[in-house]
């Protein structure tokens, strides 16, 4: 990418600056955006990388009074009030408003690529110790987690506390009503269906929360001899299948607000109520988050009576796709394994196992928010690839 400027023009009637680059391409920068993003110390606090310019000081109809070019590497603009702004060519090039440049910036900031999978998943595996102490391995782990939605870490100690270390590696864990970490095992008077020996159907965790946890960690400390196999399914892949197969069902699940409830006592007492669409979509209508937990779906359904049966039919079709043999992947955790997965995308479940007088199966769980994980991913990329 050539960041040398060949020529600049500032046609007042268009309220923008035209930049012709040495590679032959051209970029258009609206004057209001350039003034808003002045990088001088008066307008921008570089130590915090934050704008100081007050929005009320901004004139949306501003035009440049004078534009000069220095060494083809720096653009200088004098505004009508005699304030001067300077912009490095490389900085401008990255922020070009063309679709190609904006797509490249989205990729650079948000890692939006998805690799969809079904029963043919080749479960990505990495040694726990490597990602804990080697930045390149940690970068690969988080890149794969973002792209595929699941990574199995192997070789952790079969004791509680390993997830706290993992939380420190990325930044910090998400505290919920079940504590900073929580123990998945058969318990008397269980306050969650996960704390039983029964089968768990495919679900995402905590759709009752306004902002469900983005990433989940499950660390196997003890595993039962028979039963207890884990199952996962790519919810985005299945949602895409549903959209192709039955657009009306997809529309119902992506528009109907479903009530969820979670009431009990754990880290503290709680009475949580929430509404979520089973399939949250982005501005393109593509699945951006799955919110489905049949166990905590409330008896309340806040829709007109005539919409109830179509909703159930749509959810039944989605659930059937989740459980089809071509979509689900089954595996069994061993002591020391930590499965890390995207709780907004990957639905997980469990086969039943035999309960006993002693604990036969024990997983420790924890959550992290995607904001924390993505922050660490960007920092690791900068460190590993020496990128700004």
Automatic annotation (TrEMBL):
The gene designation is Bbox1
Q: Which reaction does it catalyse?
A: 4-(trimethylamino)butanoate + 2-oxoglutarate + O2 = carnitine + succinate + CO2
In what residue span(s) does the Gamma-butyrobetaine hydroxylase-like N-terminal domain sit? 13-92
**By what name is this protein known?**
gamma-butyrobetaine dioxygenase
* Organism (species): Odontophorus gujanensis (marbled wood quail)
Query: TauD/TfdA-like domain spans which residues?
Result: 117-367
Organism lineage string: Eukaryota, Metazoa, Chordata, Craniata, Vertebrata
Identify the metabolic or biological route this protein is part of. Amine and polyamine biosynthesis; carnitine biosynthesis
Which keywords describe this protein according to UniProt? Carnitine biosynthesis, Dioxygenase, Iron, Metal-binding, Oxidoreductase
The Gene Ontology biological process terms listed for this entry are: carnitine biosynthetic process
């Amino acid at each position: 990418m050539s960041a040398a400027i060949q020529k600049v023009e500032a046609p007042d009637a268009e309220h923008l600056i035209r930049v012709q680059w040495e590679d032959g391409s051209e970029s258009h920068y609206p004057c209001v955006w350039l003034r808003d993003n002045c990088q001088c110390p008066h307008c921008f606090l570089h130590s915090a990388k934050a704008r100081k310019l007050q929005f009320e000081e901004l004139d949306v109809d501003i035009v440049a009074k004078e534009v000069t070019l220095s060494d083809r590497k720096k653009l200088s603009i004098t505004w009508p009030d005699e304030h001067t702004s300077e912009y490095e060519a490389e900085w401008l090039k990255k922020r070009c408003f063309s679709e190609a440049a904006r797509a490249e910036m989205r990729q650079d900031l948000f890692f939006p690529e998805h690799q969809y999978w079904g029963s043919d998943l080749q479960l990505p595996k990495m040694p726990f110790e490597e990602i804990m102490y080697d930045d390149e391995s940690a970068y690969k782990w988080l890149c794969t987690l973002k792209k595929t939605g699941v990574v199995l870490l192997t070789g952790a100690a079969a004791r509680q506390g390993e997830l706290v270390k993992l939380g420190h590696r990325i930044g910090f864990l998400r505290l919920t009503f079940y504590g900073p970490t929580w123990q998945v095992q058969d318990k008397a008077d269980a306050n969650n269906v996960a704390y039983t020996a029964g089968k768990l159907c495919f679900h995402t965790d905590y759709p009752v929360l306004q902002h469900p946890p983005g990433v989940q960690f499950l660390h196997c400390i003890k595993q039962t001899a028979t039963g207890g196999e884990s199952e996962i399914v790519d919810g985005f892949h299945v949602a895409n299948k549903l959209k192709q197969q039955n657009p009306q069902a997809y529309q119902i699940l992506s528009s109907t607000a479903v009530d969820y409830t979670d009431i009990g006592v754990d880290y503290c007492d709680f009475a949580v109520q929430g509404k979520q669409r089973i399939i949250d979509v982005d501005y393109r209508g593509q699945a951006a988050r799955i919110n489905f937990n049949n166990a905590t779906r409330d008896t309340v359904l806040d829709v007109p009576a005539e919409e109830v049966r179509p909703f159930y039919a749509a959810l039944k079709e989605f659930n059937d796709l989740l459980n089809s043999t071509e979509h689900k992947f089954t595996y069994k955790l061993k002591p020391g394994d930590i499965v890390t997965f995207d709780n907004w995308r990957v639905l997980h479940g469990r086969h039943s196992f035999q309960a006993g007088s002693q604990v036969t199966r024990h997983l420790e769980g924890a959550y992290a928010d995607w904001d924390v994980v993505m922050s660490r991913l960007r920092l690791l990329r900068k460190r590993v690839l020496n990128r700004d």
